[in-house]
Known about the structure:
By secondary structure, the protein is mainly α. Helix content is 75%, strand content 0%.
Amino acid sequence: MSTSDVDQVRRPLRRDARESRDKLIAAAQREFAARGVDASLEKIARDAGVSIGTLYRHFPTRLDLLMAAFKPRLEEFLSGAVKALEIDDPWDGFVAYLENLFSVQAGDRGFNDFLSRRFTDSAETERIHDQMCQHIEDVLARAQAAGEVRSDITQADIVNLIWSSGRMIDATSIAAPNAWRRHLYLMLDAYRAERAHPIPEPPMTDQQLYDAMVHLSEAR
Length: 220
């Protein structure tokens, strides 16, 4: 068999592999969006028309598949975060950051789960979560320095809002899919500096926040 003949045999195999991978990602995006990050990998494989063995050949771990499936959402989210930080008015930037965060969260149950948890077995997800936390710190610090956001609000308070909004999004996704925006704007009023009153409970520490996000992953 000539080299050209070998190439002709190999090309369809490479194409088939790409098609299988693309089908798996599309099926995973649908299933994770509907069921969350703990969705059945067997169902994803069936929906893609491949065996579970083929799924694992392309994506050896659930996190590998999650990262491939969430890539468009992550790019959308991180791009919106950067744009919010570029807004001149610190309060408007803070609002834009949270609007972007929760609009992406509301459209995908799996991405909601991803934002809420820490996956300590993956250096890549840890890097992305660290980047997200840094964006929160930056947008919050700008608004606080400008006297727009109360000084005692911390990163943990924003993550707590992600958790509470996540449960509300689950509850209202069919009956009132935009209810999260009312909740967000009620909280934004509570965050304004001129509305500040003493709070009897201190904020979570960074370590407590990290441990809580890890616990959410381990509890599933």
